[in-house]
Amino acid sequence: MGRLHFFAVFSAAVLFQFPAVASSGNGSHGNALPAPVTDADYIDNGAPDPAKVELGAQLFFDKILSGNLNISCATCHHPFAGTGDGLSLPVGEGGRGLGVTRDTGVGDDAVHERVPRNAPALFNLGAREFNRLFHDGRVQLNAIFPNGIDSPAGFDLPDGLDGPLAVQAMFPVTSATEMAGQPGENSIADAAAADNLAGSNGVWAQLAERLQGIDGYVGQFVTIFDDVNTADDIRFTHAANAIAAFEAANWRADNSPFDRFLRGERAAMSLSAKAGMRIFYSPRKGNCASCHGGVFQTDHSFRAIAVPQVGPGKGDGEFDYEDFGRERVTGNPMDRYRFRVPSLRNVAQTAPYGHSGAFNTLDAMLRHHFDPVASLYAYDIRQAVMPSRPDLDSRDDRAISDPTVRASIAAANELSPVSLSEREIGDLVDFLHALTDPAMLDMRDDVPGSLPSGMVLAD
Known about the structure:
Elements: H1 3-17, H2 50-60, H3 73-76, E1 132-133, E2 139-141, E3 149-150, H4 164-168, H5 176-180, H6 187-193, H7 203-212, H8 215-224, H9 236-250, H10 257-262, H11 271-281, H12 289-292, E4 302-303, H13 327-330, E5 339-340, H14 362-370, H15 372-378, H16 390-396, H17 398-401, H18 403-412, H19 422-433
Antiparallel strand pairs: 1-2, 2-3, 4-5
């Protein structure tokens, strides 16, 4: 059979076996191929106000939003690290440097602990279906709350937020380990420790006051927002809306080889990637689409897949070093160790993997899925990527070294073992690489040249 004829037959067979769903953006879950992504899948049809996007970029990279003026949103979600930081667990407020070169700081300014969960990638979060955010989904749609969104602020969440992505941007600035700092170090950290987020001298009011004092920001807020006429009208909700617009516009990633294949460009993917696609969507093979179905390769559910618990945890369990995941939001013990199923767009760029960043390579994370319990019991914490400091290192493996905790994580696992050959695994990896949008391979233009605050961009 000639090569071109074989290719045509192979492509047709793939499409025949796995037909696309009727329309995009419907969050379809089954094992069918999704329809191509379109502008309609996104808020504002994927075209936020460019001026708001520019303002959001500046705010995203500006340390003015941190309590001690030493960290920005971009520190843990940098375009040079696939909108993450390249670490298993972030080194938040008090650390120095970017990405895998970041250290834990020195002296009194050193970090008190690692941030408990891996910094998730931010691709495609401007799509309408991304309405549950954070690893445990603690920001989610709920009509009884202001803005129709449930969040850690409950009924104290201010009005005027554009959606879940803007709501998400309200909270890293309130975390002692992420951006606020420790009590006694600054007034924002003190407000955060007192759980004063929305009060007159709360975290958000103090940050808004900082922005009100910077002429280069004030002019932009006045121009962009209809309800801002003077500096005094600026609220942190405006900043959160701008940050969300930046993330939605700049990190829309839907022109991968897989996207182009779905749009009819049959030569966009390699033969091995197409073979991997068949494994991914086959219920009898990988069955990956049972969780990673839909337009963006996620069904937005919460699953327990026995990912090892690395790091300080979230203060759960008898000894406070566990992370109960979704249970922390729902209060339902059946949700213990369940975490949000991530989108797989640009997944090859977003290592390490898992809510705790336990797996440093895509291959290791993939193989964990094939037998999660065996992988959990065989786990070697040395594959985690974190700057070493003796006191922090001593806490990193407490949960995974506790036989009772490890057995509980194993018992909660929801994935059945899968058997694939090495060639099939290789094909599956090739398909996952085909989910990378080439535009996301060079994101240098996402970094603003300067900031109205005058603060330096580099750590």
